[in-house]
Amino acid sequence: MVVVSRQSLLPSFLYSTSTPSPTDHVPSSNMTGGSRVVIASPNEGKIELFSPAFYAACTVGGMLCCGITHTAVTPMDVIKCNMQIDPAKYKSTTSGFGVLVKEQGAKGLFKGWAPTLIGYSAQGAFKYGFYEYFKKYYSDIAGPEYAAKYKTLIYLAGSASAEVIADVALCPMEAVKVRVQTQPGFARGLSDGLPKIVKAEGVAGLYKGLVPLWGRQIPYTMMKFASFETIVELMYKHYIPTPKEQCSPTVQLGVSFAGGYIAGVLCAVVSHPADNLVSFLNNAKGATVGDAVKRFGVWGLLTRGLPLRILMIGTLTGTQWGIYDSFKVFVGLPTTGGGAPTPATAKA
């Protein structure tokens, strides 16, 4: 069961929940001028929305969904990074797999899995946990009427704020990952790659790709969350004949995956030029953005490795939302998105 206070200034679009029955809506004697709404959930425990336990659950869900999915697509990531760094050698996705396996064996497809797992688990924890926090924080600042009216701006601001923090956690692992994947002989993995970078360039060497990483991840995350929330709302409004609260968990999680996949395709296109820059700058010591433009050209930055990244990010983002919402359902929380954009008001 999930317990929600009507007294909080909570626009209903933040969380779509089942419409309570007359027996669910029970006045509370210890809440002045308010009431309590009990929302049925598959879990017997109780997590109050926007409580420390709620944010902890979202943080764990984010850690799981990002860590698992990014590690699972490591082979595609290895090929993508090498196509970005050495397009003459890795000319296409198919030939790239062949070249890599021929030179390094099948194990070469999983190079960098450890920094990927650690880095993206940390990033996912901060990304999803802080997104939920900032979404509520900015909604409270705006008030229920304006938060509902400008909900897309709330999604954009909340996701951007969360990603700024999340990328600080990701950046060192991303630096190690890219070099391990694209520089044969640089290091076996995280255990020797991390100290090697620190010894050669200092701790700053782990963060030299932070600004391009922000340039890639902040637009990506803004698109990921805002488009997902919008797509899910539209799917329930126009394409799902049954109201969300009457849909089975399987249908709701299917909507989460479909909405996430579509959002992922949009994310890939928006963030791809910066993704090329991150790979190039982390691979070439002392390189600048200007050097990347000279080498690849503007069109190359926009398109090099894009088809593979669309496949990778679409699948990855859809699966992430599926895992994240599955975990939320498991702990007794509602799935994300799909709420009507009307503000909830306190009862007198």
From TrEMBL:
It is found in: Mitochondrion inner membrane. It is a multi-pass membrane protein. It holds the Pfam family Mito_carr. The keyword rRNA-binding does not apply. PROSITE patterns: SOLCAR. SUPFAM superfamilies: Mitochondrial carrier. Solcar repeats lie at residues 53-137, 150-234. Keywords: Membrane, Mitochondrion, Mitochondrion inner membrane, Repeat, Transmembrane, Transmembrane helix, Transport. Belongs to the mitochondrial carrier (TC 2.A.29) family. This is Mitochondrial phosphate transporter.
